[in-house]
Specification:
The chain is of the alpha+beta class. The chain has a single domain, classed as Alpha-Beta Complex (Sufe protein. Chain: A), CATH 3.90.1010.10. Helix content is 52%, strand content 12%. It has a 3-stranded antiparallel beta sheet with strand order 1-2-3. It starts with a helix and ends with a helix. The model has no long low-confidence stretch (mean pLDDT 89).
Amino acid sequence: MSKIDDLIEEYEFLEADDRYRLLIDLGKSLEDMPDALKTDATLVRGCSASVWVYPTQVEDGRLHFLADSNAAITKGIIALVLETVQDQSVEAVLQTSIAEILEPFDLKNQLSSNRTQGIPNMIALIEETAKRYQNA
């Protein structure tokens, strides 16, 4: 089982408060993003909290994302989204349906709409990044 499968299984058995704690803990596991990368160019639009995502491509063609937020729950959602694609090849990222993988978390019903409104924009940014690297 992949880590995302493990997270889905754990999430399903948790009560609402524990689900929040799980997301907050996931956010704490994000790799540190240098403040110098938190610019208007890396800001994800449409999020209620500030969210920055900085994509990179490692030498073997895999995509790696640095990301951060100024809100703990939002940072956890970012970590959850990145868990679906982090360090995968461009082709694998393009073949991944991030929204579909995240469906079992039922984020729209578990969190306020303010917390989830930026998720589609973050997913779009990841997909656009993968397409850009594919065409480069």
